[in-house]
Amino acid sequence: MSSAYRSSLTIHPPGQSPPPRASSGERTDASDPGLRRWRRVVVDPVVASLLTPEEVEAVAVRDGVHGHPDDVWVCVTACGEQYVAMLLSGEWAQTGPSDEEVAAGFADQLQDWVAESRFGWGQLREPAYDLGEP
Predict the structure, then answer these.
(1) Does any domain span residue 127?
(2) Number of domains forming the structure of the chain
(3) Position 126 in a domain
(4) Distance between CA 134 and CA 123 in Å, rounded?
(5) Per the domain annotation, does 133 fall within a domain?
(6) Where is this region: Disordered (predicted)?
(7) Which domain holds residue 109?
(8) 1, 18, 63, 119: least buried by Cβ within 10 Å?
(9) Alpha carbon distance 112, 51 (integer Å)
(10) What is the DSSP track for 70-99?
(11) pLDDT confidence bin for 10, thresholds 50/70/90
(12) Structure confidence by residue, pLDDT tens digits, 83-96
């Protein structure tokens, strides 16, 4: 299994706050134009195609949470559950996949996560999205 497709699922009992996530940097889509582009072009369209606005609590794209400092990670919180996965490896900077390939991989992973979540258990939600403008 490639570390580029690693994800985790953590479920916290009601009333318990999740522990803070470690990050190697402070860059997020709120402060970095490159990360903001990934969110606008890839992450937001995929999230909107698989989750309802009522389910989505937070979405963030940030730099290297684990591993390479230029890795791009996505964190989606929906209905109290958190999905965290690498969107793109910093090691692919020069020869990386296209926006379409990144979106397809992210959609596949997020679709699986929704089907295994408490709020979407057993549902096969089909992603149908158009990439945002670069």
Answers:
(1) no
(2) 1
(3) no
(4) 31
(5) no
(6) 1-34
(7) 3-116
(8) 1
(9) 12
(10) T-EEEEEEETTEEEEEEEE-GGGTTTPPPH
(11) low
(12) 998 888 877 656 77
